[in-house]
Amino acid sequence: MAVTAMPRARFSEAEWRTRVDLAACYRLIDLFGWSDLINTRTTARIPGPAEHFLINRFGMLYDEVTASSLIKIDSEGNNVEPSDEPVNRGGFTLPAVVHRARPDVACCIHTHTVAGCAVSMQKDGLLPLNQHALQVIGDIAYHDYEGTGRSDGERSRFLADFGDKHIMVLRNHGLFVIGRTIAEAFIATTGWSGPARCSWPFSNPVRRSIR
Amino acid sequence: MAVTAMPRARFSEAEWRTRVDLAACYRLIDLFGWSDLINTRTTARIPGPAEHFLINRFGMLYDEVTASSLIKIDSEGNNVEPSDEPVNRGGFTLPAVVHRARPDVACCIHTHTVAGCAVSMQKDGLLPLNQHALQVIGDIAYHDYEGTGRSDGERSRFLADFGDKHIMVLRNHGLFVIGRTIAEAFIATTGWSGPARCSWPFSNPVRRSIR
Amino acid sequence: MAVTAMPRARFSEAEWRTRVDLAACYRLIDLFGWSDLINTRTTARIPGPAEHFLINRFGMLYDEVTASSLIKIDSEGNNVEPSDEPVNRGGFTLPAVVHRARPDVACCIHTHTVAGCAVSMQKDGLLPLNQHALQVIGDIAYHDYEGTGRSDGERSRFLADFGDKHIMVLRNHGLFVIGRTIAEAFIATTGWSGPARCSWPFSNPVRRSIR
Amino acid sequence: MAVTAMPRARFSEAEWRTRVDLAACYRLIDLFGWSDLINTRTTARIPGPAEHFLINRFGMLYDEVTASSLIKIDSEGNNVEPSDEPVNRGGFTLPAVVHRARPDVACCIHTHTVAGCAVSMQKDGLLPLNQHALQVIGDIAYHDYEGTGRSDGERSRFLADFGDKHIMVLRNHGLFVIGRTIAEAFIATTGWSGPARCSWPFSNPVRRSIR
């Protein structure tokens, strides 16, 4: 798409607003130092009757994402419009589980920060050691690591583990946060980040079997 | 207020100097990496017979604060002048306790740095392990965490715990520093920051009851 | 060489592409914070029948390296073209061992990052504590520290320890990564960096004899 | 001194070169993140028969120091030329001990880095855990902390503890490095910095009596 194109005209007002907010979210994640090259993703639901979602173009760094470059996909990760843009369908697996099962979830943010990964490696997870932690600790779920392949069985366990929480610690992996708006998911990620950074050196990790 | 307004004309010389110093203090806190988005605050007393104070406009980031944007409030957190600017009255609770009880205190700086929070989570607090620590350790008070609601009883205990010290470790929370001038409070915060950064990985935290 | 020279004309297309990629690799290593002044190096094989390699000019910082400033050497570290540019022949010792023995290796990246050195100081090396670690842990070799002098015996042990892995932890020293392309070696270094940063504070180092 | 003055004309060639190198050293210390506001100092001997030294103007930050702003003092810390520039005589105490006793020492660098302070707080000091450490460990001396007042007795013990080493760990305080040139002292500080940053989280500090 040429720089001189007028992308906004191609989208409904609702889709355009979602694109702008989601692109801003990618940029903020980069600004806060939470990105991991191309290895995580943030997805958002486009309001409306169709089950359409936005995701970053595979291979694009977080500080490169723009409103227009986001790709519209259905709940299976297929391109909605004819496109030769690459989609990270494997990366959409986990967000898709949540987006399909919970229409109230507008946004999924998945991160691999050093502090977040380190707390995810600790047997006790985030401890209630300070006020920052108290603000999020009641909203944290945990999901055990089952390997990189996602089976149907794991999808069910993942949703069950989530329950009604917004912050999911993917044990020995990272963080997965959901929100009813993009802003809510971002704020929850921020709320997790503070206590994680204070706490991560304090506990001992547990060596877990990977089978 | 328009950018072209001449704000200084609206203020007494004493108030204007306090505004400039306090805004500089907000900017320095940001520059030193001690800010926590909109979650802490710094307040200053305006010299003069009236019990008036300055606080940041709620929602403004530390690197956005200007001398003119600071809001004048009384010791209850009410706007002194007609204004629709939002005031973080909950955030003024703790500074108000100090400002009302101790006219000698010109400035309260409250921070949530990673090192400061981490030391606040340690049973022994700051240990006398190096020369930096010796320079402040005699001036440090500790106040146990009692939850997010501030009762009258806690206000009394908070003042009693402070005694004649300038640096208060809010256990399992963060730091609260006072000074007879804005500069003094800033320097004391700096003096705490060095030993906290050297020391925080060394002690074990204690899990505290939050009731 | 004057700035106005047209360096590309002096090189074959294959050499020029290797120069551009290797210089980009030096710049990326600097950008990611993995450089250590002039104390490590990255080398690349120039495709073709001759056993020629590129290395940085000794004394040049990583953010100063350019495609044209790289020096062409043979497998003994001798300048291939008449030149008074200094070559770090001692620094080429270890890469030379790999480049001579394994024609499939196009690039060697040697780093001394804080996290990488710290993990190299730990008895158990990198632990399988998170998904990042799982992505590289099967591709990691370990070589015990034998001192700064490199004997013929050590060269054999170094190659034997490497086996068919791409990531070598030089115990009590740092990291040595190889790839069939410059990009592959860089990506493997990136893949190591994440779990190393999450893991390094968790294990206890072991004091090793240096004889 | 006005910006338009030609400071160089006021100085001998030897003094001017020392000024330029020492100012560069201050700037590099700031660039490497080793400065501590106005709380440390670096001093250099001006070559020549007179026992004259250069020190930063008290109150100037490291990134503000210029060749012309450095102050010329004698071995007692007195201004050599009529000047109303403030000299940190207390801060010159320790460098003066070395400069007077050892004419071979051209430069003293005193720092309070987080990693350096943290290692200084550890009973065993820097451990021989990696190659970086091996490069400096034979050149490290230790001096126990005796408080902030420097007695004649301590000066003797300080020199005796230094022996013929270049890197002095001031226990529970920081680092003091000397060199026969400004560059040598800077390189030695760099050589210490790497292993200190790798090692500081690994050992347990010891609580020392401060009397």
Would you kindly provide a written description of the structure presented here, covering whatever features stand out?
The structure is a homotetramer of 211-residue chains. By secondary structure, chain A is α+β, with helices and mostly antiparallel strands. Residues 204-211 of chain A have low confidence and may be disordered. Chain A is built from 6 helices and 7 strands. Chains in contact: A-B, A-C, B-D, C-D. Chains A and B meet through α4 and α6 of A and α3 of B.
Describe the structure concisely for a colleague:
4 copies of one chain form a homotetramer. With 211 residues, the first copy, chain A, is α+β, with helices and mostly antiparallel strands. In chain A, 36% of the residues lie in helices and 15% in strands.
Give the helices and strands, then pairings.
Four copies of one chain form a homotetramer.
Chain A: H1 13-31, E1 42-45, E2 52-55, E3 71-74, H2 89-101, E4 107-111, H3 114-120, H4 131-137, E5 140-143, H5 152-162, E6 167-170, E7 174-179, H6 182-199
Parallel strand pairs in A: 5-6
Antiparallel strand pairs in A: 1-2, 1-4, 2-3, 4-7, 6-7
Helix pairs in contact in A: 3-6, 4-6
Structure classification of chain A: alpha+beta
Low-confidence stretches of chain A: 204-211
Radius of gyration of chain A: 17 Å
Overall morphology of chain A: globular
The quaternary organization reads as homotetramer
Q: How many H/I helices of chain A?
A: 6
